[in-house]
């Protein structure tokens, strides 16, 4: 047993296989044939953020068919958000699951959100089944969360009270590399930059103009110089969306879209100051007026190690089961190693959830295609639609349910989860 500050982490090597594993697996196995067509329908009908009408209808219809669940479609003023609740009727922990639904423009479900939904749906249903079978107090909440791909659906849900009075949140994400219980994502900020100058004829009287494009190019070059002094977790990306109308004029307007990422919110704030200084330099050098419009931001995801330890115990118990399908490997029980494996420069609105409450975002590997392309590639979209990938997502659902059941049944665990969370986010 390892003690860290004011909370306790239990070494898995000292534990017996999870008590409820076989029961959870049986519930999920019974769901598989009914849930597969829902998964397939979502995958084969990809929909962009806030337009997930087919996915919304398929998932809410499926949840309505399950006894004891109260389903609210088009929840919280969002047409494609939904919520399903199973309530024991007795006060206890409230555990939530997120089901993502949206696709990527042009390449379908190349982020595997159909699998995320299947894992969360199966996990939530299995959790409720065990609460019912063992007469445990508490509540299970399953949220249909639109528009993860840049739309910030979970942020809107947070703002509108969807996560109020919920103790913790569980989700997962597919990839092609290592399985992990401690996915840590990057903080992200997107913004539009515009420069406003004065138009003039470039040959007849250029001295009368103020070149907005020069201001943008100067800023872009300054960003390139800045990269030499940035930290390993920093990313600066951008494109020029408006470089002027004609080549023979001094350009009165220029614009670009920019994205910055860092390992944490504090570091992102520091990077943002440096990036904005580059744009002010372009304005100062040319006399063009600068306008920066914020277009979106995601916080970094802070994984909860107490929840992660529970997930790892269930996952590795299944990995050790010779009767199951072949597994590529176990999740490291050394959580420092696991968190390094779980680090990604990608960003997600689940990060914002992790600052509002304890969060687990588990990463899971699905079989890659011939080119071994990961998420956001066409080949990954194809891989995400296979029955094999779906079967892996159900294993994830089992492990997520295991975490939830541990919270409901292990005395003091929820308090440990919350203490760890307060320490991690500085509350």
What is this structure's SSE topology?
Layout (H helix, E strand, L loop, with lengths): L1 E3 L2 E3 L11 H24 L8 H12 L5 E3 L9 E6 L6 E7 L12 H21 L5 E7 L7 H7 L8 E8 L11 E10 L3 E2 L10 H15 L8 E8 L6 E2 L2 E10 L2 H22 L2 E10 L6 H15 L15 H7 L8 H7 L2 E7 L12 H6 L3 H23 L3 H13 L2
Parallel strand pairs: 5-6, 5-7, 7-14
Antiparallel strand pairs: 1-2, 3-4, 4-6, 8-12, 8-13, 9-11, 10-12
Summarize the structure.
The chain is α+β, with helices and mostly antiparallel strands and 427 residues long.
Question: How would you describe this protein?
Answer:
This protein has 427 residues and is an alpha+beta fold. The chain folds into 2 domains: 2-185 and 301-425, Zn peptidases (Aminopeptidase, 3-Layer(aba) Sandwich), CATH 3.40.630; 187-296, Alpha-Beta Plaits, CATH 3.30.70. The chain has 12 helices and 14 strands. The chain has helices spanning 21-44, 53-64, 113-133, 153-159, 212-226, 265-286, 305-319, 335-341, 350-356, 378-383, 387-409, 413-425; strands spanning 2-4, 7-9, 70-72, 82-87, 94-100, 139-145, 168-175, 187-196, 200-201, 235-242, 249-250, 253-262, 289-298, 359-365. The strands form 4 sheets. The chain has a 6-stranded mixed beta sheet, sandwiched between helices. The chain has a 4-stranded antiparallel beta sheet with strand order 10-12-8-13. The longest helix has 24 residues, at 21-44. It starts with a strand and ends with a helix. 49% of the residues are buried. The model is unreliable at 1-14 and 322-327 (pLDDT under 50). GO terms for molecular function: dipeptidase activity. Belongs to the peptidase M20A family. It comes from Colletotrichum musicola.
């Amino acid at each position: 047993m390892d003690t860290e500050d004011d909370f306790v982490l239990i070494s898995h090597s000292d534990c017996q296989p999870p008590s409820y594993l076989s029961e959870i697996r049986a519930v999920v196995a019974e769901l598989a044939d009914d849930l597969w067509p829902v998964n397939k329908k979502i995958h084969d009908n990809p929909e962009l953020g806030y337009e997930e009408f087919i996915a919304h209808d398929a998932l809410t219809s499926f949840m309505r068919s399950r006894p004891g669940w109260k389903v609210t479609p088009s929840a919280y003023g969002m047409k494609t958000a939904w919520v399903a609740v199973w309530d024991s009727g007795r006060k206890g922990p409230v555990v939530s699951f997120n089901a993502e639904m949206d696709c990527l423009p042009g390449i379908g479900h190349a982020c595997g959100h159909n699998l995320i939904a299947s894992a969360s749906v199966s996990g939530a249903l299995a959790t409720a089944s065990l609460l019912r079978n063992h007469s445990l107090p508490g509540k299970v909440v399953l949220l249909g969360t639109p528009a993860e791909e840049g739309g910030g659906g979970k942020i809107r849900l947070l703002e509108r009270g969807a996560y109020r009075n919920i103790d913790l949140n569980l989700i997962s994400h597919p990839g092609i590399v290592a399985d992990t219980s401690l996915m840590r994502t990057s903080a992200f900020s997107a913004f539009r930059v515009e420069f406003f100058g004065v138009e003039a004829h470039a040959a007849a009287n250029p001295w009368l103009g103020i070149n907005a494009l020069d201001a943008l190019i100067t800023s872009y070059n300054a960003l390139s110089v800045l990269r030499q002094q940035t930290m390993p977790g920093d990313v600066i990306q951008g494109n020029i969306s408006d470089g002027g109308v004609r080549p023979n004029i001094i350009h009165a307007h220029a614009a670009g879209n920019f994205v910055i990422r860092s390992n944490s919110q504090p570091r992102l704030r520091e990077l943002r100051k440096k990036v904005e200084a580059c744009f002010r330099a372009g304005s100062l050098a040319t006399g063009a007026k600068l306008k920066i419009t914020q277009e979106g931001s995601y916080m970094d995801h802070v994984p909860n190690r107490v929840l992660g330890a529970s997930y790892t115990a269930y996952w590795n118990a299944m990995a050790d089961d010779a009767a199951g399908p072949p597994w590529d490997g176990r999740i490291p029980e050394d959580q420092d190693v696991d968190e390094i494996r779980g680090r990604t420069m990608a960003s997600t609105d689940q990060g914002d959830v992790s600052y509002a409450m304890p969060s687990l975002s588990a990463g899971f590997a699905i079989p890659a295609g011939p080119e071994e392309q990961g998420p956001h590639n066409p080949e990954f979209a194809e891989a995400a639609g296979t029955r094999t990938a779906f079967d892996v997502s159900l294993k994830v659902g089992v492990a997520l349910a295991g975490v939830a059941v541990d919270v409901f049944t292990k005395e003091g665990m929820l308090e440990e989860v919350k203490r760890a969370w307060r320490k991690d986010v500085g509350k």
